[in-house]
Write a structure and sequence with these properties.
Number of helices of chain A: 0
Strand content of chain A: 35-45%
Distance between the termini of chain B: 39 Å
Strand content of chain B: over 45%
Largest sheet of chain A: 6 strands, mixed
Order of helices and strands of chain A: EEEEEEEEE
Radius of gyration of chain A: 13 Å
Order of helices and strands of chain B: EEEEEEEEEEE
Number of helices of chain B: 0
Oligomer: heterodimer
Largest sheet of chain B: 7 strands, mixed
Chain lengths: 112, 122
């Protein structure tokens, strides 16, 4: 059971817009900690996609965007492409116990 | 361009200690503002942060693993290492090392190694 909750899967046709939610609580996202997003292509290591809620590292297409509100965050992919088929993970920090970095359970994006 | 590479045994017996090393190339392991972390991914499952270390030796561990984990650093070799004791089949996973950018809030894992598969089996 992950501290941050994501839907197991989302799907969309090429060109469509899909969103992935990341729901936390008052000890992590709701406490004001930012959210980062990672993309994991099949058989590869995760890659940083979005940091600080809505900032893209150099080289990440602007089709990817993030937002945060209250105890939740979202990743949006507009103009969905076949190469976007991957697992996506959100990450933040949880201040319960002695504090630690936490990930969501991951969302599989399927391009129909 | 900074790169990280994990190394270590791919098979560990139950109750023994898992030992992995991450070698940093193309940059410094002693840069201020960066921690160095270990993250694992069991087969078909999500990511779990294990622990992190600063070049000075300061460490943070996942509370759920803290009693079994030791992370150390050797700045002269540009390496940091993970030891996980008393392993069981539940510790079977792909283990990743990653650079942890502490200037972000919270820290973000901005560069990852390719990962190494560790299987716990007799």
């Amino acid at each position: 059971q992950s501290v941050l909750t994501q839907p197991p899967s989302v799907s969309g046709a090429p060109g469509q817009r899909v969103t992935i939610s990341c729901t936390g609580s008052s000890s992590n996202i709701g406490a004001g900690y930012d959210v980062h997003w990672y993309q994991q292509l099949p058989g590869t290591a995760p890659k940083l996609l979005i940091y600080g809620n809505n900032n893209r590292p150099s080289g990440v297409p602007d089709r990817f965007s993030g937002s945060k509100s209250g105890t939740s965050a979202s990743l949006a992919i507009t103009g969905l492409q076949a190469e976007d088929e991957a697992d996506y993970y959100c990450q933040s920090y949880d201040s319960s116990l002695s504090g630690y970095w936490v990930f969501g359970g991951g969302t599989k994006v399927t391009v129909l | 361009q900074l790169q990280l590479q994990e190394s270590g045994p791919g098979l560990v017996k139950p109750s023994e200690t898992l030992s992995l090393t991450c070698t940093v190339s193309g940059g410094s392991i002693s840069s201020s503002g960066y921690y160095w972390g270990w993250i694992r991914q069991p087969p078909g499952k999500g990511l779990e942060w294990i622990g992190s270390i600063y070049y000075s030796g300061s460490t943070y561990y996942n509370p759920s693993l803290k009693s079994r984990v030791t992370i150390s650093v050797d700045t002269t070799k540009k390496q940091f290492s993970l030891k996980l004791s008393s392993v069981t089949a539940a510790d079977t996973a792909v283990y990743y090392c990653a650079r942890q950018w502490a200037a972000a809030d919270p820290d973000v894992f901005d560069i990852w190694g390719q990962g190494t598969v560790v299987t716990v089996s007799s």
